């Protein structure tokens, strides 16, 4: 299959593309103008095993670092796979994830999956660029510092130990994802936000709908978004009437004071975003991390022999993960040159952090899982002004999960061959459907 790659576009041709884009929705014009005689590769890329890297990554990095891709919707975008390119674009403050209002390439038919948590509503859209975005990050990020996460660590460990005990009592084999990996971050983020953990099944459904590519219809996504908004609006109203020591109460307190606090709509959007991001990605990562360590059990044994490696092992698991999901998207609001190719305003770009994390120009032996790797400049949490706000929380949860499992279940092993592990399909985030284990 031919790949659209590194075509140099003249300024006149670039203007023609932009004019055509103004007449054609969802970012298809640039593809139609520049590659009528070429095929693009289908994205997401094909893989073999659930933990394996797509075979195309290396070839794309070497031969086609700016590749044309066809999305499940039929729309077209550009894919970046080199570390320097992915880091450079993610660090560029001018560009952010597409919102429902941007004429960006759709991920799936009918626009499904186009804007994640904010759905199709302008009312609950958070600022994504400029001073409003920086101001929002300042207000929220102070509650996610490494120091605050360290203070939460003993409580996380106690929760993790209780979950392991319950899993053991339930008997083996067990699904580590369902009985441990999913519940730990759910309980943590619910406690932080002051929402009832008993509602976690509702949160899971809403999160999956907000992160859907092909799993839900647009009607189902809209219904889930409405239910989620109603729930969080009611919860915020209750916290305003009866504040506590949780994060939502603190944000309300900050916003009700004089100055530039969050509006009620921004409080709702922020709470929804934190609830989705605070458990969905970490829950999946716990399962993937343990599977990676157990599929070659010498890795698990190495950690048993030297538990001090847990911190670097977590970072390496994040780097080594081939099943991150769709990748971070950026919508270009002006022309950008990458690797000699001019990408015109209106282009949707997919930054494959997982592919960038296997870049041999940055990582020695990138296809080897080195639990002591340091430094480890992986890009799983993004880079620059839009880097993951909750990365200190995610790191702490992953470290605690691994420490507790090593201590309480040293004989842990996969209960199925690696070939029997199946990926989560149809969502923006990657994961394993189940992680069967025994001990």
TrEMBL record:
Xref: PROSITE patterns: CYTOCHROME_P450
Q: Which Pfam families match?
A: p450 (PF00067)
Q: Does the keyword Heme apply?
A: yes
Cofactors required: heme
**Single GO term (MF):** oxidoreductase activity, acting on paired donors, with incorporation or reduction of molecular oxygen
Q: Which residue intervals make up region (Disordered)? A: 17-36, 100-132
InterPro entries reported in the protein's UniProt record:
Cyt_P450, Cyt_P450_B, Cyt_P450_CS, Cyt_P450_sf
Where exactly are the transmembrane stretches of this chain? none
Q: Which domain of life is it from?
A: Bacteria
Keywords of this entry:
Heme, Iron, Metal-binding, Monooxygenase, Oxidoreductase
Q: Does the keyword Metal-binding apply?
A: yes
List where Polar residues composition bias occurs: 117-128
SUPFAM superfamilies the record matches: Cytochrome P450
Family that this chain belongs to: Belongs to the cytochrome P450 family.
Give the matching PANTHER family: CYTOCHROME P450 BJ-1 (PTHR46696:SF5), P450, PUTATIVE (EUROFUNG)-RELATED (PTHR46696)
Name of the featured protein:
Cytochrome P450
Q: Which source organism does the UniProt entry give?
A: Nocardioides albertanoniae
């Amino acid at each position: 299959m031919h790949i659209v790659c590194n075509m140099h576009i003249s300024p006149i041709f670039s203007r023609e593309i932009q004019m055509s884009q103004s007449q054609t929705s969802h970012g298809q014009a640039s593809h139609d103008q520049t590659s009528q005689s070429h095929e693009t590769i289908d994205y997401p890329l094909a893989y073999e095993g659930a933990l394996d890297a797509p075979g195309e990554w290396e070839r794309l990095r070497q031969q086609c670092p700016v590749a044309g891709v066809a999305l499940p919707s039929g729309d077209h975008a550009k894919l970046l796979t080199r570390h320097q390119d992915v880091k450079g674009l993610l660090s560029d403050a001018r560009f952010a994830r597409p919102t429902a209002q941007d004429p960006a390439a759709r991920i799936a038919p009918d626009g499904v999956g186009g804007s994640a948590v904010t759905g199709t509503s302008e009312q609950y859209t958070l600022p994504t660029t400029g001073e409003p975005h920086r101001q929002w990050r300042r207000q929220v990020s102070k509650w996610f510092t490494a120091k605050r996460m360290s203070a939460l660590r003993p409580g996380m460990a106690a929760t993790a130990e209780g979950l392991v005990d319950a899993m053991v009592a339930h008997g083996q084999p067990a699904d580590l994802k369902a009985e441990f990996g999913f519940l730990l971050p759910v309980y943590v983020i619910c406690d932080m936000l002051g929402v009832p953990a008993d509602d976690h099944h509702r949160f899971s459904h809403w999160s999956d709908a907000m992160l859907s590519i092909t799993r839900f219809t647009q009607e189902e996504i809209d219904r889930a978004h409405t239910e989620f908004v109603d729930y969080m609006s009611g919860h915020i109203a209750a916290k305003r009437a009866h504040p506590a020591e949780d994060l939502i109460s603190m944000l309300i307190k900050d916003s009700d004071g004089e100055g530039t606090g969050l509006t009620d709509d921004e409080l709702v959007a922020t709470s929804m975003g934190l609830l989705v991001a605070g458990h969905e990605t970490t829950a999946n990562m716990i399962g993937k991390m343990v599977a990676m360590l157990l599929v070659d059990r010498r890795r698990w044994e190495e950690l048993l022999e030297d538990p001090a490696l847990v911190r670097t092992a977590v970072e390496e698991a994040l780097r080594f993960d081939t099943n991150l999901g769709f990748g971070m998207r950026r919508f270009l609001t002006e022309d950008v040159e990458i690797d000699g190719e001019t990408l015109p305003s209106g282009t949707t770009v997919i930054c494959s952090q997982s592919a960038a994390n296997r870049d041999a120009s940055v990582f020695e032996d990138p296809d080897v899982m080195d639990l002591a790797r340091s430094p480890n400049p992986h890009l799983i949490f993004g880079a620059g002004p839009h880097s993951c706000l909750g990365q200190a929380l995610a790191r702490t949860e992953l470290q605690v999960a691994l420490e507790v499992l090593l201590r309480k279940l040293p004989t842990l092993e996969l209960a199925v061959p690696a070939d029997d592990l199946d990926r989560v399909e149809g969502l923006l985030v990657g994961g394993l459907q189940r992680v069967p284990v025994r001990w």
